[in-house]
């Protein structure tokens, strides 16, 4: 059992200060309509002892150890996710806006809702893959929830991830076809690490389905998400950016008090899969 799970009050304050400093830096270069993540390294503030129980492990042993570590978290309601996303995904160049995941658009925080022109809460691990919906648990886990344009969210729907497809309105470079979705290049690694986080966090031991990646794009309502081989490629090609690292810090310090281990240790993807 780890000695440190949820950070002490002083550690949270230090972590939050570090995060805010990082968010104030130009981690994202914005145009008037869109923003692109950079690959610069952001400072982290968590105690390295957080991962002590994973040291030296590989394969299923590593996956099990990480599950134990990151399952110690504070859970949010689905309504609380609205306000959290306004902080975790804030545009570093405009504190009034959030960055939309697939589109790359910087949009006003106040335009959250369900109408055309609004942004809403995108489940990167499609909530129908395992049928967990928006219930507290995987349905409200900030590590895979991101702001996205309402219409783009609908276009992505519950498709698995893969290469290929056609562009669409507000795509930002993302593509889609009849059975898959390809995010824009700047967030392909982000998507991969969010999917793999979910596969480690939800192992079927806490009342939720055992979520696993596979190499299919026809998973439907099964608790699987693909395509693993492509996600691993995206993870390698798009390493964690400063924006993604800062987001991990905010979730850890201010909301869930757990981390996405594949942002902190990208090498663990290959060690498990």
UniProtKB/TrEMBL annotation:
UniProt region (Disordered), positions on chain: 156-183
Compositionally biased region (Low complexity): 163-174
Protein's recorded name: Ribonuclease
Organism this protein belongs to: Streptomyces toyocaensis
UniProt GO molecular function: hydrolase activity; nuclease activity
Top-level division of the source organism's lineage: Bacteria
UniProt cross-references to InterPro entries, sorted A to Z: Endonuclease-I, His-Me_finger_sf
Keywords: Hydrolase, Nuclease, Signal
């Amino acid at each position: 059992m780890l000695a440190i799970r949820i950070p002490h009050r002083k550690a949270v304050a230090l972590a939050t200060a570090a995060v805010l400093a990082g968010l104030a830096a130009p981690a994202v270069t914005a145009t008037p309509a869109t923003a692109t993540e950079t690959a610069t390294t952001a400072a982290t503030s968590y105690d390295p002892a957080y991962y002590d129980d994973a040291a030296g492990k590989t394969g299923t042993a590593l996956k099990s150890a990480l599950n134990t570590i990151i399952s110690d978290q504070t859970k949010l309601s689905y309504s609380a996710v609205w306000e959290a996303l306004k902080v975790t995904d804030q545009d570093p160049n405009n504190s009034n806006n959030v960055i939309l995941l697939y589109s790359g658009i910087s949009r006003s925080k106040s335009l959250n809702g369900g109408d055309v022109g609004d942004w809403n809460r995108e489940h990167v691990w499609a909530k129908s893959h395992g049928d967990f919906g928006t219930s507290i648990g995987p349905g409200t886990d900030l590590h895979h929830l991101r702001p996205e344009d309402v219409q783009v969210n609908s276009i992505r729907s519950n498709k698995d991830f893969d290469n290929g497809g056609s562009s669409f309105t507000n795509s930002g470079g993302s593509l889609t076809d009849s059975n898959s979705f390809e995010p824009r290049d700047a967030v392909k690694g982000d998507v991969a690490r969010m999917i793999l986080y979910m596969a480690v966090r939800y192992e079927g031991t806490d009342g939720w389905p055992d979520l696993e990646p596979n190499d299919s794009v026809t998973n439907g309502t099964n608790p699987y998400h693909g395509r693993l081989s492509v996600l691993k490629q995206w993870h390698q090609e798009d390493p964690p950016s400063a924006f993604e690292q800062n987001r991990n810090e905010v979730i850890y310090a201010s909301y869930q008090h757990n981390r996405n281990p594949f942002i902190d240790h990208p090498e663990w993807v290959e060690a498990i899969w």
